[in-house]
Amino acid sequence: MRPEHPIVLITGASSGFGEAMARLLASQGCHLALGARRVERVQALADELTKAHGIKAFAGAVDTRHTASVDAFVAEAAAALGGLHVVVANAGLASGTYKLWETPDEDLEAMMRTNVEGVVKTIRAGLPHLRKAGWGHVFFIGSTAGHQPYEGGSVYCASKFGVKAMAQSLRLELNGEQIRVTSVDPGMAVTEFSDVRLKDGDKAKAVYQGVKPLTAFDVAECVRWSLMAPDHVNIDEILVKCVDQASVHKVHRRI
User: Fold this and answer.
1) pLDDT given at position 203
2) Chain Cα centroid distance, residue 106
3) What pLDDT is attached to residue 206?
4) How high does pLDDT run on average in the chain?
5) How high is the pLDDT of residue 250?
6) What is the mean pLDDT of residues 238-249?
7) 87-96, 172-181, 203-212: segment of lowest average pLDDT
8) What is the distance between the alpha carbons of residues 76 and 60, in angstroms, rounded to a whole number?
9) Domain 7-240, CATH
10) Which tens digit of pLDDT belongs to each residue from 78-107?
11) Contact 126, 83 (CB under 8 A)
12) Which of 17, 104, 132, 245 has the highest local Cβ count within 10 Å?
């Protein structure tokens, strides 16, 4: 059975979806293991949430591209908190809007190593702790880009189609164990995503011009709701978009 206070590990917890998940789940009494490359941010967040909600929180540096970094972070987090129940493989990024043949190796490798390899490494390291606990939940953070490709996003879309495939495969592979698997796949959402992708603040703002997009807390609520479902219920996939976005290519703008 789901414990009263699940211990939740979140990668990419320094901002965006990860930070919002940490804040929302802490308010629900979950204990947290927060990881990111910007360790000072997750440490400050862990300290804040511990004081505000009386939970236990561990913060550590993790670069999900590197196996040793992931393994060390997960092991330290489990030891500090007394185990793990939930793994949220949240760390991910898009880099550039290149056509397939224009994509530089640096951007190609950043997306595939973080969005695909990093997810494998995070879940691979976390699963033994979930199995030991006897109850668990794995969250993949996908994207509408994993359902519908678009121009200028070939590699990013490929990585998110990969996330969807991994989530569906893991769901089959864990059948018979008391470990749930959920993929949360958001559309347009205001985070640092576009700033990182476009490397230009004005261009990033233009992405959402005239639109009321999802917030990070909208996506965090999908995680909270799935986690709190009755034990016999598995929410396999949530595809969530703002009302203004009907599809990747159809967005209503009030301009």
Assistant:
1) 86
2) 22
3) 86
4) 96
5) 95
6) 96
7) 203-212
8) 8
9) 3.40.50.720
10) 999 999 999 999 999 999 999 999 999 999
11) no
12) 17
**Structure token pair of residue 80:** 């500090």
Cα–chain-centroid distance for residue 203? 24
Number of H helices, E strands in the chain: 9, 9
Express each pLDDT in 110-140 by its tens digit: 999 999 999 999 999 999 999 999 999 999 9
Kindly give the interhelix angle for 67-81 and 118-133, rounded to the nearest 10 degrees.
30
Residue 237: CB atoms within 10 A of its CB come to: 18
Kindly state the tokens that stand for 13.
């917890």
Place of tokens 């591209």: 65
The sheet carrying 86-89 orders its strands as 57-61, 31-36, 7-11, 86-89, 136-141, 179-186, 237-240
C-beta separation of 253 from 24 below 8 A: no
Pairing of strands 179-186, 237-240: parallel
Question: Token digits for 114?
Answer: 């973080």
Q: Which two tokens stand for residue 66?
A: 């590197």
Residue 98 annotated to the active site:
no
The answer to whether 188 and 211 have CB atoms below 8 angstroms apart is yes
Amino acid letter for position 22: A
CA 30 to chain centre: 17
φ, ψ of residue 104 to 5 degrees: the values are -70, 150
One of 98, 150, 156, 208 is an active-site residue; which one?
A: 156
Q: Is 145 helix (H, G, I), strand (E, B) or coil?
A: helix
Average of pLDDT values for 48-73? 98
The pair of three-digit structure tokens given for residue 60, joined into one six-digit string: 């550590």
